[in-house]
Amino acid sequence: MNTLEEYTDVVVVGAGHAGCEAALACARLGLSTTIFTVSVDSIALMPCNPNIGGSSKGHLVREIDALGGEMGKNIDKTFIQSKMLNKSKGPAVHSLRAQADKAEYSRAMRKVLENQDHLTIKQAEIVELLAEELETPNGLATKKITGVKTYTGAIYEAKAVILCTGTYLKARCLCGEAITYTGPNGLQAANYLTDSLKEMGIELMVSIWPMVDYKSENFEEMKAKGLLTRVEKGVRIDNVYMGNTIQYDPTNPEAREYVWGKAKKNYYDKGVKIFWLDEAEPEYTVYDFENYRYHLGPNVQIGNVYPAMYAKTFFDGMRAEGQENVVNLLRCAWAGSQKYGALVWSGDIHSTFESLQNQFAAGLNMGLSGIPWWTTDIGGFFGANIYDEDYHEVFVRWFEYGTFCPVMRLHGYRMPYQPQLEQPVVQSAYPVPRTKSGLMVMMFMKSVKNTLKFVRQCVHTQEN
Prior knowledge:
Blueprint: E1 5-13, H1 17-28, E2 33-37, E3 51-53, H2 54-66, H3 71-78, E4 79-85, E5 95-100, H4 102-114, E6 119-123, E7 126-135, E8 141-150, E9 155-163, E10 173-175, E11 178-180, H5 193-199, E12 205-208, E13 211-213, H6 219-224, E14 230-231, E15 245-247, H7 253-266, E16 274-277, E17 292-294, E18 297-298, H8 299-302, H9 306-320, E19 328-330, E20 342-345, H10 353-368, E21 374-375, H11 389-403, H12 439-463
Parallel strand pairs: 1-2, 1-9, 2-6, 12-16, 16-19, 19-20, 20-21
Antiparallel strand pairs: 3-5, 4-5, 7-8, 8-9, 10-11, 13-15, 14-17, 17-18
């Protein structure tokens, strides 16, 4: 049997928003690029809510636009209406959202891809990442990605592979307790690539917060069984960040068992073996510690044990399933967290040199306390302006520090958040200056070159 073999500079797997932007960026740099999709009719498809922008992703749309991306241009051509959200609130949360003609948006983006030089569209399911064994200068074994393999056995060799698979990997559609194994909008799911990733040691991490919303299907049951934290006075709500919520009470063994049971059924039994346990302090809207009470006692007496018990919830459950190496990412730790596989990061810190300096001490203290797995939000989380030249150096220097941390992690909320548009939008849903050059990349280039020089000097010094 003859096997098709082709060579391309870059392979992009998936043709949703991210895949289209990645493929266009590579092709416009002159790289021969092949983008794969399970169906050409699903290119840039929005099967659920056909909107671009909004509070969650509006800033991302503008960043892509500033870098010469296509999303903003495409919504300009295909939007039905646009609206500035949150106008009854302060200007910091004003957010432009454009509703798309979902069929036309998909057709228009497909046309852009088809007419782009150096870019080829392939309809095929990628089932395997191809790799070759390598040995690093210090003798450690590693692997280098060399290409991909399709369901029909075709081989595409490439210098780089970019995964933009979205929600297609072993996709399921849930309707209550009923489960249909299908991709979005009735399209074919990608059922084999996940196995290839797992063989390479790549795992999916799911973020779980300890808050339970009043609207949750589990709320009344958990409240009746005493599985939620309580208040001494006032309304029983301790956080309004994502609705009216109450934290579950991990100091209660029954609550730990209940929460793990839900996580096991919906995630662990489906193959998720690592969790991002966010908001582990926990976080309150009003920090009235004297008002909150746990199963073990008042917050003012035992409140600091919360993150350790939160970690214990998942650690005990995963060990009971036979998993030996349990590591979960948490935003906070306390005495005892060492026993429960805590991989700790330093929370939502400021994007300054002073904050970076604090991370050195925090990381050393964490290690001395017996928690070897430590990381930070590279570049900080709050307060960074991407156009601030001083921040460029903070960002790059933080990357240097992150390179030598046990875990390397980038996570942050950058400014400017949203441009304030006082006049109704008529001609363009996203009227911001566009450049075909990599604006932000060019701004960082000088700092990046200095960083690479610095790293090479460090490596050379260590080798000698």
